[in-house]
Write a structure and sequence with these properties.
about 35% strand; globular
């Protein structure tokens, strides 16, 4: 096995959590057991990928560790995808969907130790139009709220709750035409999630049966949600049985074409965006090398 040589990428502002302590903690926990370097990511507009490429070409790093929130993990995973470089995660996000699914410790000290002791596996990823996702992507109410949240002056859970409360009664299900591996469906939906892993984050399992190595995307379509049914749907997310709800339809496929009546919000690993009337969603099998616990069921 090739010797591990690690480049840690720290996004100091992502996830809303202070990381000033992190460089010294990394030095203490690694303790010269493997070669490593730390690179600080100064801002979202910084072309960090160019700097990483220079480091890799010059010093032959073979592991890239993303220390940040879900958006940081998505961007670094997109960079690593398809390359002979392995991704590691130090989770600092509010949801940490991919880290939770892969059983990567949320405790920072244990997550650093995992970079040394963990094993490398290869997982699938997804793509919605030109954007990669590794956990989930989707359209509908959750994507709409994500877009409004990104535009809000204040961040944090209270802002998120306020947006949901303000928009819930106003938001109406939309009509979608779905083509899943050649089979067509016409459905009205409050939201549709395309899942590579099983959850949005925080163990809210929108696709309990999702397998990150099976070469398929699981599709969860929530038909409608009212003030009466919302608490039941939310409870099912955490009981891991939303797929048993009469208000939910599930599918699985490799290539999905979505047609909607107008352009609108989408999300990919929680990051919001605006895309057109037609969306092409597909699985990218065995496309990302990543470090997981040595006792992981993944191979």
């Amino acid at each position: 096995m090739q010797e591990k040589k690690v480049l840690f990428i720290i996004n100091p502002i992502s996830g809303g959590k202070n990381k000033d302590f992190l460089p010294e903690l990394i030095r203490t926990k690694i303790n010269n057991s493997i070669p490593f370097e730390i690179l600080n990511w100064q801002s979202a507009s910084q072309d960090i990928e160019t700097e990483i490429n220079k480091k890799i070409e010059k010093e032959n790093f073979n592991i890239l560790v993303a220390a940040g929130g879900d958006g940081t993990v998505n961007r670094m995973a997109s960079f690593v995808k398809g390359k002979k470089i392995t991704l590691g995660i130090l989770p600092f996000g509010s949801g940490n969907g991919l880290a939770r699914f892969l059983k990567i410790p949320l405790n920072t000290e244990k997550a650093i130790e995992l970079i040394v002791t963990g094993k490398e596996v290869i997982i699938d990823s997804g793509k919605i139009n030109n954007k990669d996702f590794f956990c989930t992507a989707g359209v509908g109410f959750d994507a709409h709220i994500g877009t409004l949240f990104a535009k809000a002056g204040k961040r944090g859970p209270m802002t998120y709750i306020k947006k949901i409360t303000a928009e819930f009664n106003k938001y109406k299900p939309s009509q979608y035409e779905l083509e899943i591996d050649g089979e067509t469906y016409s459905e009205k939906a409050f939201l549709i999630t395309f899942a590579n892993a099983n959850q949005w984050g925080n163990e809210a399992q929108i696709a309990p049966g999702a397998d990150i190595q099976d070469g398929l995307l699981n599709i969860t379509l929530v038909k409608s949600v009212s003030l009466l049914t919302a608490p039941v749907i939310a409870t099912r997310l955490y009981l891991k049985n939303i797929d048993k709800s009469a208000n939910v339809k599930t599918f699985a496929g490799k290539k999905i074409i979505v047609k909607r009546q107008e352009e609108g919000s989408v999300h990919f690993d929680g990051d919001p965006g605006i895309m057109g009337k037609k969306l092409e969603v597909e699985i990218c099998p065995t496309s990302l090398k990543i470090i997981v616990p040595a006792n992981s069921r993944l191979k």
